[in-house]
């Protein structure tokens, strides 16, 4: 297969080969309370969000935004486990508020029958984040290994449903963790997309497969920023800078809290020279990305289009993720009015997801149940 780098226009007007879609067996069944179409909420319960889509490092010399940054870093520290993750503030302090949140975002396991009922007559397409979803969050990001049991669960899911990994990691690195060639991979928050060698693929008129990298022109800049940040943060014990090809991650999970402000100042001093890059928060990580209209939500739409499901009502996308960057995909599903977002989190937080799961072990349980349900459904069809 020959790959070509293609800069995808912001309008996403791209030519793809559509595959035939099966006729629907029944109309789409909305989940009770509106589900994704209603923004993921079921009981109208919300948590105030402190929006940090981009940290403006130039405002007031950067001091105002850096203070907010420090506050959110502190909120996600290990000793504040009840607080929200980076970029989200929460007023949830007691069991009553937690119960209300669970009414709005019930467990995908307890509501499994509702989810499968909505998938009747639909082609389920699975989108999975990696860190914190398929593997636990660990101190060393290079050792975020998934278990063999999880790999088997993902492999089984891919046998029945088109399945993609959508990660902030470098595509090659996340592939080295997952090691399943039959999956779709979207690395660098969707800025590096590759389809499997077998199955439907994106093709140009000459019949050659295409590797989509909408931020290719930023590669030299990203590489320069990575090397500069390595030098700027080397005096901060525990700080780790990761080159994810089309973005750079500054991990502070192992940094002493007293050193966070100094680390923030160092990163700030580097990024102020690069106005075409933006800084977004994640779970114990600061993500540096190009300022282009591309994210995990657009990557999911792109992959759906590649499968022939761009404007199709006979598809049920399911996206499972744990981080703030996954909210872009949850919002797309909410706006489409079809499919489900599932947030992986032990703590309540504002989200556009319809359902929740607490940790990767529950994600594996959900995937295994989905496979078993599909097997039983196919078996019953052959007996009719």
From TrEMBL:
Belongs to the trehalose phosphatase family. The keyword Hydrolase applies. Its cofactor is a divalent metal cation. Removes the phosphate from trehalose 6-phosphate to produce free trehalose. It comes from the Eukaryota. It holds the Pfam family Trehalose_PPase. Keywords: Hydrolase. Its EC number is 3.1.3.12. Pathway: Glycan biosynthesis; trehalose biosynthesis. It catalyses: alpha,alpha-trehalose 6-phosphate + H2O = alpha,alpha-trehalose + phosphate. GO terms for molecular function: trehalose-phosphatase activity. This is Trehalose 6-phosphate phosphatase. The keyword Hydrolase applies. InterPro entries: HAD-like_sf, HAD-SF_hydro_IIB, HAD_sf, OTSB-like, Trehalose_PPase. PANTHER family: TREHALOSE 6-PHOSPHATE PHOSPHATASE.
